[in-house]
């Protein structure tokens, strides 16, 4: 059966479960003040892309599994659902015991029956590619799981299929796959609620103490056909701040292509909402949503995203960065390959360094370990509401927690916890001049 994603075609009643309960610890400090699914790509929550794709394909009811920042997630998602004519119900995962546990509770509490599409809320594809991916899964005559081809399958659950494309087994994150191309779980699948429920009841906790949905799916594949459907278009598992930067770059690049614009000339904004005090240089691709004050002598470079109510002021340069709503970058600042949270204020002369002297990939702390970002250039991540004093220097890969205050003249060379005050002393000597 062929499925054109431009058509609305649902065979019978298909339920949807969206997994949105994760804490997003690796996305700190951005997830200190919001749930991971509400992190934005081109100033729009990732969750909104998923809801819109499902609604466009005729799925008007979905169950959202929540936990972290539950109230904010409910408030925002219900507003989105109302605008697109979708009905949402909510199930709060009682404990963070894995994706399988989340699906099990969603089915039990909501009474879901029959064919069900499951979508992970922390994946990103461009809107057209996401809609195509979901429609491809829905159109399969069998149960199905979307597979994304990646260069290093060791970070994900690798899908092993037979010659006819049927799922045989799933290899969870394994060092044996390090550096090897493979097809991995893309976080979109169609299954039978009753059948997966039976397998979940039999699934023992993993070594992490979690009920893994992939383990139950692997068991189901031994009894029923599960098609592995390889996706077209770039797919991103948004697990770290640098993944979020890449998602913004991907979407902006595709948006400019759709407009038929050359990248350097692709500057997207509402002229009625932007105040420009010349001279200002805008070299695309750039995306500005909502209001902003630019200049004088500001230079905004390619792959910069500015989300509204912003001030990009005198002699400021922004490069390949996301400036969230309400953030102010007003005087003599350089922000490169960074994410600046909502309502952040950078003091005059605050600089984000984004390159190592040795030219190696920038590393950053994740849950207590220093990891390779995979990027030669990566600056800082600054949580919502943070403030920096004048002449603050932030080293590559360093993160500043939400509502933290950094004193004047500081060199920030390690992560700063949420709500902290950093004071930097200096030695000084005052002597009377001999000729005075």
Tell me about this structure.
This protein is α/β, with parallel strands linked by helices. The chain folds into two domains: 15-239, Spore Coat Polysaccharide Biosynthesis Protein SpsA, Chain A (Alpha-Beta Complex), CATH 3.90.550; 242-422, UDP N-Acetylglucosamine Acyltransferase, domain 1 (3 Solenoid), CATH 2.160.10. Helices cover 20% and strands 30% of the residues. The strands form ten sheets. Strands 5-4-1-6-11-8-12 form a seven-stranded mixed beta sheet. Strands 14-17-20-23-26-31-34 form a seven-stranded parallel beta sheet. Strands 15-18-21-24 form a four-stranded parallel beta sheet, with no helix packed on it. A hairpin with a 2-residue loop joins strand 2 and strand 3 (44-45). Helix 1 (46-56) runs parallel beside helix 2 (70-84) and helix 1 packs across helix 4.
Classify the secondary structure makeup into a structural class: alpha/beta
The description of the largest β-sheet is: 7 strands, mixed
Strand order in the largest sheet:
5-4-1-6-11-8-12
Radius of gyration: 24 Å
Number of helical elements = 7
Strands, total number = 37
Low-pLDDT stretches are 1-12
Helix fraction by DSSP (H/I, runs of at least 4): 10-25%
CA distance, first residue to last residue: 94 Å
What share of the residues does DSSP label as strand, in percent?
Answer: 25-35%
The shape, in one word, is globular
CATH superfamily of the largest domain: Spore Coat Polysaccharide Biosynthesis Protein SpsA, Chain A
Mean pLDDT value: 94
Number of domains: 2
CATH C-level category of the largest domain? Alpha Beta
